[in-house]
Amino acid sequence: MLTEADGGPISIVVKAANVHDSLLLQDALEAVIVKPPNPSVHPQNLCLDKAFDGAPSEATARVYGYEPHIRRIGEEKKDKRGRRTKKARRYVVERTIGWLNRCRGILIRYEKKAENFLGVVQLACALLWYRRCHRLAT
User: Which neighbouring-strand residues pair with 66?
Assistant: First the structure.
């Protein structure tokens, strides 16, 4: 799953559970629905976890116009005073997955075919965007 800064889903990829995350990065970046702005005018940042730590993942992100930010192993985030912070880095994505898990059809997965399951997940993402737009409008 690829999300924006506020947690709105931008792209979803459904594959088998035994496929490594770094192999799905290109598929996720190709599945982006909304075209990002020009990277020379508005730089696009892509926060990735340690599963994407490597030259192929960084090269893939740069090809699609994103600046990858990957915290290396042993690297800790520190505040201005030099103390470690305990903020979760990927909290935004985990929160979005939690929102999607409220849909029983996704949580139970009644669909056997991957295409049908992807359709249900995309419908749930559209519902999330609708609720966000409706909440912001009122």
Answer: 44
Report the Cα 88 to chain-centroid distance in Å: 15
pLDDT tens for 72-112 read 766 666 666 766 665 545 678 888 989 998 888 888 888 88
Torsion sign across C-alpha atoms 9, 13, 14, 15: negative
| Mean pLDDT (the chain, rounded) | 85
How far is the CA of 29 from the CAs of 45, 64, 128, in angstroms? Answer: 13, 7, 20
User: pTM for this structure?
Assistant: 0.78
Q: How far apart are CA 42 and CA 131, in angstroms?
A: 27
Question: Cβ–Cβ contacts within 10 Å for residue 129, how many?
Answer: 13
Which residue segments constitute the domains of the chain, with CATH numbers given?
2-80+89-137 (3.30.420)
